Amino acid sequence: MINLLPLIRNECLKIIKKKRFYVILLILLVLVPMFTYAQMRIAERSQNKFNSDWRLEVQQQITDNQNSLGSDRIPEEWKSYRKIFVQQLQYYLNHDVNPNEPSGVTFTREFLDNSVTLFIPLLIMAVASDLVSGERTTGTIKMLLTRPVKRWKVLFSKMAALLMFVSLIVLSTFLVSYLISGLAFGYKGFNVPVFTGFQISGDSVDMSTVHAVPQWKYLLMQCGLIWFVSVVVALLAFMVSVLVRSTAASIVVMMAALIAGTILTNMASAWTTAKYLFMVNLGLTGYLAGTPAPIEGMTLAFSMAVLAVWGLASVIISFTVFTKRDILN
Amino acid sequence: MNDSKWTWRSVSLISIAATVLLIIGFVYAVNDIINPAGDTLQTSLPQGTATPLTGTNELLKVVALGDSLAKGTGDNTGAGFVKRAVDGLAADGEHTELLGNMGINGQTTLGLQNSLKEEGVQYELRQASVILLSIGGNDLFRGSDILKDGSNSSTTSNSSAVDKDLTPEALLAALPEAAKRLGLILESIAKINPQAQIYYVGLYNPFGDIPDLLVPGNQAVAAWNNAAMDIINKHSNMTLVPTFDLFNRHLDQYLSSDHFHPNGDGYQRMGERIVQAVR
C-alpha cells in the first residue's frame, strides 16, 4: 500500500507534463467565448423584439410551439416533446420566474446541459485515451513494467490519476464557462430559482412534485451528475486505451461510440433496446431539467444502472487484460 | 524537483476537494430526482394593465390573438395582417409596437376560450393597448381538410373534398354555439384589459368561387358577422373590421394557394382596413 501514493503522484505529473490538461483548458478558452458571443447576439435580438419583457418572449415561445403542434409535418415524438416544453414554460410563466434569466450562471447551466453528452466526454477522452496506449506507442511501457511494482498497481495508479483529472476537468469547465460568460452577462444569479421535479408521463407533465431550487444548488447537482457521466466515460476510454495499441485508434473508437450516441438519441425511440447502450444514457442532466428521455422507459435510476454496469465492466476488463497480457512490441 | 512537489500538492488537493464537492452534488441530484418534494413558489405575474390611450401620439402596443389569419398563414413573407397593420400604423406616424402575436393555426373559439385562462396570455393582453382578434373561421368551416396546415398540395383535390364536407346545414349548425363563445371571448378579453381597444376581424367567404358553396357560404359568413356585430355593438371599446367585401369576387387574386387563407396582397388589404379602424 505504501508505494501506491508515489505511483499516483508519478502518473499525475506525467499527465501534467504531457500538457494534455493545458490542451483541455485551451479548448475551453477558445470555445466558451464563441458560445458566449453567440448567446449574446441572441439575447440582444430578443431584447430588441420584446422590449426586454421576458414574459412576452416566453409567451411567444409558447405560441410558436403550440403552432407547430398542429402541423402534420412534425413527427409525433417531437410533438410530445414540445407539449412538455410548453407546459414547463407555462409553469415558469405562471410563477413569474424567467427560465432564461440572462446571467453568467444561467449561461453556465445551459452550457453544461448541452455539453454533457458530447463535449465534456471529448475533453475527458483527451486525457483518458492516451494513458496506456500512449506508453505503448512511445515504448515507455516496458520501462514502467520492469520496475519491481505489481502490474495492477501500475494500472490502478493510472486510473486514480485519471479520476482526479476527471474532477478537475468538470470543475474547470464550470469555472471557465462561468468566468468568461460572466464578462458578458454579469456574475450574479446564483440565487435565481430554477424549477425541477417535472414528472413526465407520455406527453403530459405532472407538476405536483415541481419545486424551486436556487441556481447554485441546481448547478451543484448538475455538476454532480456530469461528474458521474464523466467517470464512466473515463473508465470506458481507459479500457479502450488498454485494449488498443495506438492512441489514435483509441481516440477514434471512443469518438465513434460517442457520436453514434448523439445520432441514436436523435433517431431514438423506435429501437427500444438501444437504451442499454451507454452512449444513449449520457444525458443525465436531462432528468434534472425535466426534458423527456430519448427512449421511452428510461429513468434516472435506469440510466445510472446502465452506466454503472458499463463502467464496472470496463474496469474489470482493463485489469484482467493488463495484468495477463504479454507486452511484445 | 521542488517545482513538481508543489504541482502535485496543489493538483491533488484541488482534485480531492472537487471530487468531494461533485459527489455531494451527485448525491443531492439523485435524491432530488428520485424523491422530489413538491413545494410551490407563491408568486404570480404582475397584475397591472397598460396605461390607457389618451393623447394622439401615444405608444400603441399591439397584441394579436386568434387563429391562422392572426398568425399570417398563407402570406409568403410571414407578415400577415398583424405585421402589415403595425407597419401601416408606423408609416402613418403612430408610435406602434407589436408586443406579440398569439395566433395559432387551427384555433377555434373553444381553444381560444381555454387559452384565455392561461396567465401568460392574460399578462400579454394586459400590456396591450390595441388587441387584434381573428377567430371563428375554423368553427364555421370545420371538417374541411383545407383548414389543416400543410395539406395545400393540390387545390383541385381540395375543392372536391370541400364539396363533400361542406353542406349549408353543416355550416349553419356550428354557428349559434360558436357565436355564443365569441361573445364570451370578447367579454373576457374586455375584462382582462378594460382599457384596450379590441378590433375583431370579420370573416370572408373563401368558397365564393365554388358555385355550390357561394350562397350557403355567404349566408353563413353573413350570419356570423351579424352575430359578431350584435355583440360588439354593445361595447364601446370594441370594433368590427369587415373583410367580406375585400375578398368577395376577388378570391383568385387575394387568396393563397391553399384556397382558404389570404395571400400577401389579401393580408395587405386587411392590414389597411385595420389601420383605418385604429387611427
UniProtKB/TrEMBL annotation, chain A:
Where does the sequence pass through the membrane?
A: 21-40, 116-134, 155-180, 225-244, 251-278, 298-322
Natural source organism: Paenibacillus monticola
Record-level Gene Ontology MF annotations = ABC-type transporter activity
Q: Which domain of life is it from?
A: Bacteria
Q: What is this protein called?
A: ABC transporter permease subunit
Q: Which UniProt keywords apply?
A: Membrane, Transmembrane, Transmembrane helix
Query: What GO CC terms are in its UniProt record?
Result: plasma membrane
Tell me which PANTHER family the record gives: BACITRACIN TRANSPORT PERMEASE PROTEIN BCRB, INTEGRAL MEMBRANE PROTEIN-RELATED
TrEMBL record, chain B:
Residue span, SGNH hydrolase-type esterase domain: 64-269
Supply the Gene3D superfamilies for this chain. Answer: SGNH hydrolase
The superkingdom listed in its UniProt entry is: Bacteria
Q: Which GO terms describe its molecular function?
A: phosphatidylcholine lysophospholipase activity
Q: Which PANTHER family match?
A: SPORE GERMINATION LIPASE LIPC (PTHR30383:SF27), THIOESTERASE 1/PROTEASE 1/LYSOPHOSPHOLIPASE L1 (PTHR30383)
Protein's recorded name: Lysophospholipase
Q: Which organism is it from?
A: Paenibacillus monticola
Top-down, what is the taxonomic lineage of the species of origin? Bacteria, Bacillati, Bacillota, Bacilli, Bacillales
